[in-house]
Design brief:
heterodimer, A: mainly alpha, three-stranded antiparallel beta sheet, B: alpha+beta, Penicillin-binding protein 2a (Domain 2), Beta-lactamase, 2 domains, 22 helices, 20% strand
């Protein structure tokens, strides 16, 4: 008995080391590259924002990234499959933390999104993104044999729409849309029939018509005026006088003026504060202005690498649950990158979605690193299973 | 195991297809972004660079008026005045040197400035702070503004800016206290106390303005405006209103401050005074003579005017003698010697000492001033008639291990800053053996410490350097039974209507142990000095309706007239106020400083004085 216990312990250690080595190195490279870009760009864009404290945002972002990175490595070593058992708890925690914001949240610029903690303010809607992926995938696996049912689809839709609506009510339209994108991706990977997607698309279109056209016509304003401005400003940036059109114009000017190789220290759009939110939502515009097409393309390539590796992880997952989680995370990353970058180059509306890993903000950076940790865990587990099979 | 799907899922054709769809979406998405970036940055980059260069949206700072400063009754001492200044906007200045020189010539002609000087100053400021807006001239009249605004094509980059300047309605009254404001320097911006201040903002640089800057500062507003190619405002996009700084109420009493400054002005023209509440350290008046009109500092002043304010032969009006002066205090110091002798047990109030008119120690003869002999006396009469020989003996006997005289002087605040809420205080000097011996070792003086030094200190002569505020604090500590107060000027922070927002706490006092017997004996001696027959200042105060305790002092200078001192505690025997006055060349304490003190006390206690108060009395 004694001997076998000792052996088990040693096996476990070897196992852990091996599992660590089975993470995806390319994904790790993309992650580190994006974090490094973020710390550099956030630091240079905010050097003049707090007089006398030029490194305030730089140090904080580096600290968030450090914490997130450690979490990512820890999660990569664990077996993500356990999370399936905890789906109810995770889902409940997500809803509760979002509701808590309504009760004790701190207001910033007209919306209550965060809970104030001693060292930073925590945004449950950010962490909610990865929690939704993990719990929703769990619920779907439970109904694996009845996936074609209309009831299954509508249950999943309901499970995702509840937190999405709660978040949109904060109001945080952007995160709500990310939740819906995650729902779509998980249903898609799960094999939901095309007819269901067609029906859902029809419902969404009808909802938009009601919210934007029908309800205002009878005197009920669902969206706040600024939300409507944000959603429509990108269509006609030239003539629109609103603050949102101003932001889009300044962002386009920043990116355009970056040219091929960037303006470096002459980046007046950023340095003279013409560019709004230059360390959060519009951080990509800073990259575009300071480093030009070369820099923007490099950052995009790192995202492309990350998404490619995420999709690859999805194909090799050892179980269906892993595939669904990987799918949800891939969609979460893709949607945020496309909408955020699209916003800065004037082809998407302004929705307040951060650029994963690059935008300043602890909740967003740490959430994204947790998600990547899950992807790494799925990758490591798949490789391990494959190795065991070879034996 | 409960997981029914633990097996690796075979990649079904359906799943493979769907993953391919997602991959396809990602591919399309990146392609769209890349093409859009290519279009924006590579194909139209140049036109965006041009757009960024002449970005038409400007943020205009709207300066917040600073908070006002009022006296203890709410009478304004420092206010704001609205004015316009002419500034240059660097990004709209002509790029060609010749055109710029032309602009400076036009401006110089219009505003009466030397074009070369203007050019040098502006270009230097722009090199140091590339995004600042250099000021051409402050406080310009409306017709100049109109002239410039109507001819924007002749004056490219020249912009008027509305500005608040400080206004001091009382002129010279309290001039030394307020200090100046000025543009924050790059070094100051790094300090935490200037958090929230940005380049070009004006902050307190000295005096009360610096000490309470965070309350007085206010928060600048901003207007985001769109301008046309000539820089003319076409559209205001949004606006953040400036918030005026908070009002500061001082403990100062304007009437007493004014009376004291008038009293000092009647002397030899160089002196200082301090009036303080003995119980809580509130300063009711504090000033230095000669004074100046602070209104000249509300805008830049010429070097010539500044030189005049610091010139030795004009009495250095900017120098605040009340907190920065360092003088021997003459016999006013005897109160400290008395405290040391009593508290260290050297004598009791009834110990008799003989005063034969002189004391010879180590071959040196120390004499009473005027050479009179007072005979045998104890402490109270010794203070009353201000016997030097009595205190010489104390000084001689206190020159022992532990140096009790220096210890007590130090405890009572001599040779250290009082801690008043003004930034530029100087500590003065309390002579000690260690100090003199260190100087001698560095060959900065001719001899080591000797008993003669202590004898000189016992009557406030020699190397001692103190100022009126320090003397006021020391006297107050003895009068209130041992609390060495930190004097203070700031009482509370208020909104513009005078409603209190925040009481400024009275700073904690240092405690020293002084027995009631010591206090009573000293006050009795000082009361005698101002009222008993033979008292040094009896002729000045015998007709004054409020009983006081007061001490004259005459500090001797070689090659210069004597310096006159007077420190009074009133009313006797339970003093509420201490008044310390000195006149640098006023002669005997009773001749100049005592009558000045009487005029200040008259203002403090609302005593109507008929006729001029004459100086005079015994030498001390």
């Amino acid at each position: 008995m004694q001997a076998s216990a000792a052996t088990a312990v040693r096996d476990f250690r070897d196992d852990a080391r091996a599992r660590f080595l089975r993470i995806d190195p390319l994904m790790l490279v993309a992650t580190i590259g994006l974090i490094a870009a973020s710390i550099y760009v956030v630091g240079s864009a905010t050097a003049d924002d707090r007089p006398g404290d030029p490194n305030y945002y730089l140090y904080r972002q580096a600290a968030y990234a450090g914490v997130g990175f450690v979490l990512m490595l820890l999660i990569a070593r664990l077996d993500y499959s356990r999370l399936r058992e905890w789906k109810l708890g995770i889902y409940g925690f997500m809803i509760a933390s979002i509701l808590l914001v309504y009760a004790v949240g701190v207001s910033a610029r007209g919306s209550k999104r965060a809970i104030s903690l001693p060292f930073f303010s925590f945004q449950p809607s950010e962490l909610g993104k990865v929690l939704l992926v993990v719990s929703l995938a769990g619920f779907i696996v439970d109904r694996i044999r009845r996936l074609g049912d209309r009831e299954s689809t509508s249950r999943m839709v309901l499970l995702a729409v509840v937190p999405a609506m709660l978040v949109i009510g904060q109001p945080d339209l952007g995160s709500g849309l990310v939740y819906l994108a995650i729902l779509g991706a998980i249903l898609f990977i799960a094999g939901t029939p095309w007819t269901h997607f067609a029906a859902l698309g029809g419902l969404a279109a009808a909802a938009i018509v009601v919210v934007v056209i029908a309800a205002p016509a009878v005197g009920v304003e669902v969206l706040k005026p600024y939300q409507k401005d944000r959603l429509t400003a990108f269509l006609t940036p030239g003539q629109n006088q609103s603050k949102e059109a101003y932001q889009v114009n300044q962002s386009l000017t920043a990116i355009g003026s970056g040219g091929k190789t960037g303006r470096g220290d002459e980046a007046t759009q950023t340095k003279l504060d013409f560019l709004p939110e230059h360390h959060t939502d519009f951080v990509f515009s800073v990259v575009g202005e300071e480093f030009g097409f070369v820099g923007a393309a490099l950052v995009l390539s790192l995202f492309a690498l990350l998404i490619w590796r995420a999709l690859r992880t999805l194909t090799i997952a050892k179980n269906f649950y892993g595939a669904l989680v990987a799918g949800g995370i891939t969609a979460m990353l893709m949607f945020q990158v496309f909408v955020n970058v699209g916003m800065t180059i004037g082809i998407m509306p302004i929705t307040g979605i951060p650029l994963p890993l690059v935008s300043y903000g602890g909740s967003s950076v740490i959430t994204t690193l947790i998600a990547i940790g899950l992807l790494q865990s799925i990758h490591a587990q798949a490789r391990e299973t494959a190795a065991v099979k070879r034996l | 195991m409960y997981l029914d799907n633990e097996r690796r899922p075979t990649l079904t054709p359906q799943l493979a297809f769907r993953i391919a769809v997602i991959g396809g979406v990602a591919l399309v998405m990146f392609a769209v972004i890349f093409f859009r970036l290519w279009y924006l940055q590579v194909l139209s980059g140049d036109s965006y660079v041009a757009a960024a260069r002449e970005n038409r949206v400007r943020e205009i700072k709207v300066q917040a008026p600073r908070g006002e400063i009022v006296d203890r009754h709410g009478v304004p001492l420092v206010e704001n005045r609205h004015s316009f200044s002419i500034k240059l906007s660097p990004d709209k200045l002509p790029r060609a040197r010749a055109e710029r020189a032309q602009l400076y010539r036009r401006l110089g002609r219009l505003l009466g400035l030397k074009p070369q000087r203007l050019e040098r100053r502006v270009e230097r400021e722009l090199r140091a702070l590339p995004y600042s807006k250099p000021t051409v001239k402050q406080d310009v009249g409306p017709n100049y503004l109109a002239y410039v605004l109507e001819r924007q094509n002749q004056f490219p980059g020249v912009e008027p800016e509305s500005e608040f300047l400080r206004l001091y309605p009382e002129g010279v009254v309290g001039a030394h206290l307020f200090g100046q404001i000025g543009e924050v320097s790059p070094e100051e911006l790094k300090e935490p106390r200037f958090n929230g201040v940005s380049i070009g903002d004006r902050v307190g640089k000295a005096g009360i303005e610096a000490e309470y800057d965070r309350f007085l500062r206010g928060r600048n507003g901003a207007a985001r405006v769109e301008v046309d190619a000539l820089g003319k405002l076409t559209n205001t996009l949004n606006r953040v209103q400036p918030i005026q700084g908070q009002q500061l109420r001082l403990s100062l009493d304007l009437n007493i401050q004014r009376a004291a400054q008038q009293a000092l002005a009647g002397g030899t023209g160089r002196g200082a005074f301090a009036v303080m509440n003995v119980q809580n350290g509130e300063v009711l008046a504090l000033g230095s003579q000669p004074s100046f009109d602070p209104n000249i500092f509300s805008k830049p002043i010429s070097q010539k005017k500044l030189d005049a304010l610091t010139a030795e032969e004009l009495g250095k009006p900017l120098f605040d003698r009340a907190i920065q002066g360092g003088y021997p205090t003459g016999s006013t110091f005897k109160l400290i010697t008395a405290t040391a002798a009593l508290e260290s047990g050297l004598i009791t109030p009834s110990t008799p000492l003989s005063d034969p008119g002189s004391l010879t120690v180590g071959g040196v003869k120390f004499e009473n001033s005027g050479g009179v002999a007072h005979g045998v006396l104890s402490l109270v009469p010794a203070l009353t008639v201000s016997s030097d020989v009595f205190f010489y003996q104390l000084g001689r006997d206190l020159n022992e291990k532990g140096m009790p005289l220096q210890q007590w002087a130090h405890r009572l605040g001599i040779g250290r800053r009082t801690g008043i809420d003004l930034p530029a205080e100087s500590p003065g000097l309390l002579p000690t053996p260690a100090w003199r011996n260190a100087l001698k070792k560095k060959d900065l003086t001719d001899r080591y410490w000797s008993v003669g030094d202590n004898i000189n200190l016992s009557v406030g002569q020699g190397d001692l350097q103190a100022n009126p505020l320090q003397m006021a604090v020391a006297y107050a500590a003895i009068a209130n039974g041992g609390r060495v107060l930190r004097p203070r000027l700031g009482l509370r922070i208020e909104d513009a209507t005078g409603r209190a927002l925040q009481q400024l706490d009275a700073p904690t006092a240092r405690r020293v142990k002084i027995s009631p017997e010591t206090r009573n004996a000293i006050l009795e001696g000082l009361n005698g000095a101002a009222s008993a027959p033979g008292g040094t200042s009896t002729p000045v105060f015998e007709s004054f309706p409020i009983p006081i305790a007061g001490k004259t002092g005459t500090a001797e200078w070689t090659g210069r007239p004597d310096q006159s001192w007077y420190v009074a505690l009133a009313p006797y025997p339970n003093p509420r106020y201490v008044v310390a006055v000195t006149d640098e060349a006023g002669g005997f304490g009773a001749d100049t400083a005592a009558p000045m003190t009487r005029r200040i006390l008259a203002a403090l206690f609302d005593v109507k004085e008929s006729g001029l108060v004459q100086g005079g009395g015994a030498p001390d």
